[in-house]
Each structure stands twice: as C-alpha cells, then as structure tokens.
Amino acid sequence: MIRRMVGFETVSRDSNLALIEWTRSWLERHGAKVTITWNDERSKANLFGTLPACDGNATRGGVVLSGHTDVVPVDGQPWSTPPFEATQIGSRLQGRGCADMKSFFAIGLALLPEFQRRRFARPLHFALSYDEEVGCIGVRRLIADVLAQGLQPLGCIVGEPTGMEVITAHKGRSSWRCRVRGHEAHSALAPRGVNAVELACELVADIAAQGRRFREGGSHDRDYDVPYTTVHVGTIRGGTALNIVPRDCEFEFEMRHLPADDPAAFIAGLEQRARNLAPAMHAVDPATYVAFDTLSTTTGFDTASHRPIVALAHRCNERDGCGKVSFGSEAGLFDSAGIATVLCGPGHIAQAHQPDEWIGLDQLARCEAFMLRLADELAAG
Fold first, then answer.
1. What is the pTM of this model?
2. What is the C-alpha to C-alpha distance for residues 331 and 154, in angstroms, rounded to an integer?
3. What are phi and psi of 336, to 5 degrees?
4. Any bridge partners for residue 202, and if so which?
5. Closest alpha carbon to 370 in 128, 108, 170
6. Are strands 323-325 and 155-158 parallel, antiparallel or unpaired?
7. How far apart are the C-alpha atoms of 10 and 300, rounded to whole Å?
8. Each residue of 194-238: pLDDT tens digit?
C-alpha cells in the first residue's frame, strides 16, 4: 500500500485526484462512507471516509486518522532511486512521501480488511487533505465539512513523522513576502537611485536581529526541540546587472512561534521599520515603496495531557510521555475546531523533504502495531 501511495506523484503544484479516487474506491469497497470536498478549480480534493460502528453510529466518539496527500518537489535533488517508487534498501523504504507522510495513512488503508472484520463500537474516520505543504489549505474545507455533518469524534491523530512518539503541541507558523520597489540608475550615479537590494538587506538584517532577541531574551519552553521562537529568511531575489542600481527586490521569511510570541506584533514592528525608510526613498522617487504580503498561517496547538485522545494514543503506543515539536501541521486547525488532537506517526522529520527520503521498517512495524491496538480500543468501546 505504501508503494501504491508513493507512486501517485502528488507534488503540491499538481493534482492529487488520482490518489483520492483510488482511495475512495478502496474505502467504499470496505464499507466506508466517503465524502469529497474540492478546491475551486476541482483539480484537487480532500477525502473524509467513515467506517461506522456496528450499531450504525458514524458520528459520535470515534477517532480521526489524518494525513496530507501532497508532497514537496524533488526538482534538483540528487536521488539515487526513482523518487516516486518506494524502494526497499536494507532496513529502509525510500521514496518521496515515505516519511512525510504517506506511510501513516497507507498502513491504515492496508488494514481496512482487518478493521472491517472487527465489530467496532465506535467509528473510525480517515481524513486526507490537499496542499498541506503550501499552507494547510485544503484541510480547512475538510474540517468545515466535518463540522457541518455534526461529527463529534473523541479526537484526531495526525500521522506526521514523530518517530511514533505522542506529540501534544507544536509551534504556530506564519510566513510573508516583502517586496521593495526602488529607483533604477546607472551605478556610476548610485546616489540618484534607490537601491532595492540594499534596503531589503537592511530589513533582512533586522529580522536576523529579532531572531537573536528571541533566542537570547525571549520566552523558552524546554519541551520543544528548539525551545524558543525562530525567524528565518528563506529566499531573496533582486537586481538585473552589476552596473544598474536595482529597482526591485523581494524576499520571503517565516516565524515559528511559541504561544507567548505574537506574529502580528512581529510583523507590525517590521512594517514600522520599513515605514521609517520611506522618507529617504520618496525624496528620490515618490513611487518607491516597501510592501508585505501574508503567504500562510499555520495555527499552533497544545493539547492538555488529561484529554482522552492523549490517553488513547499512549495505550495504542504502549508507552507514556508527551513531546512538543517545532514543525507545523494541520493539528492546530483540528484543535481550533474543537477536535482534540495529537501527532503520532512513523518516521522522523529529519528524513523528510530530503533527497532519498526514507523510513525505517521498524517504524512501519510500530505504526502497524499502533493501528491494531487502536482497532482493539474501538472494538472495546
């Protein structure tokens, strides 16, 4: 089943419909009721499938197994095996999405015949979304549809790669694009221009300084792998030739924040510093500007350890302990919708998004055992 799922080339820029349609058929073949929610262009879709309890209950007390179908690109990465073929190499399975995060829901789907044989006292739900990797876009429509159906699950397990450890919190994430419009001039007459690259770099340096302040004097939570809020500039583009004062520059940056640090306050401060640059810019050319665009927002979450979904995940995992992680997921959106959520899935984030992305067979075995114990829990009521 993992090989089948990895074989669908569901990079975020492409359609996921082939995977969704195959999965819809597989779920319905095993007695599940399936609903689909589409994007506006109907080129991508979410799937929500319910395996009802033996008494017909499809709404109350069940568990949601959630995963995203999209994967990051492989362009320019030096893969040693075909990225969209799950290839076993010793004790590893290698392929795009093996770790992040097709193995999790593939194992659940592979066990459907076993689940169907059980007489569940509570329903089991499968939630598959599109465009998680570019801002948790699709799952928002999926959750709205779930709420409209009146579903009241006990909780949700998002199968992000956590090494099969139960994770009860992650940071929020916001990302932005900054666009700087300057004024072109011959570089021999540089003072007559407005250098967009230099102005952008002033703001980049300001972001880096704010990151140091978060690290050295901000709030810390030692339960996280990175215990403080981080900011990061990931791309920058500008200029056309060395002898031209550049007119345009843009860069993209993000903030991964603890609950105590407010992304709205962070971006407001940066916007104010950009406004402080305006008088000197406008003295040369009133058409110059600095503008900021919001790219994405991922909600953080923090599920209290006493919530039933945490205890259930511990029983299925046969171990206690809760962790917190810095990477984002769809968990915050489920949690904000009133569905208590944990992360627990096979593989490790360090192997995700890399060339030769891989997952250990031992992780797959742990996930399979987790799913079977979950089936026991649902059968017992």
1. 0.86
2. 14
3. -65, -25
4. none
5. 108
6. unpaired
7. 25
8. 999 999 999 999 999 999 999 999 999 998 889 999 999 999 999
